[in-house]
């Protein structure tokens, strides 16, 4: 499962595969793995804030 993988091992190809999109499509939205991580963390923190 993707969520169980270490971030360093999660390639951009793997991210696209898990999301069901092409690698080129993913690069339309994100420049790097770090950008994806920042977006995920931001979404998570907004969700947690809204729960509080």
Task: Describe this structure as you would to a colleague.
With 52 residues, the chain is mostly helical. The chain has a single domain (2-51), classed as Orthogonal Bundle (Arc Repressor Mutant, subunit A), CATH 1.10.10. The protein contains three helices and no strands. The longest helix is centred in the C-terminal third of the chain and has 19 residues, at 33-51. The radius of gyration is 12 Å and the shape is elongated. The N and C termini lie far apart (29 Å).
First-residue to last-residue Cα separation: 29 Å
Question: Which structural class fits the helix and strand makeup?
Answer: mainly alpha
- How is the CATH topology named? Arc Repressor Mutant, subunit A
Strand portion? under 5%
Number of strands: 0
CATH architecture: Orthogonal Bundle
Please identify the top-level CATH class.
Answer: Mainly Alpha
Give the overall average pLDDT.
78
Largest sheet: none
Q: How helix-rich are the residues, as a percent range?
A: 55-70%
Element string (H = helix, E = strand): HHH
């Amino acid at each position: 499962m993707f969520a169980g993988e270490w971030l360093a091992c999660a390639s951009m190809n793997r991210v696209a595969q898990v999301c069901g999109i092409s690698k080129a499509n993913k690069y339309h939205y994100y420049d790097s793995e770090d950008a994806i991580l920042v977006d995920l963390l931001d979404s998570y923190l907004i969700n947690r804030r809204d729960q509080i």
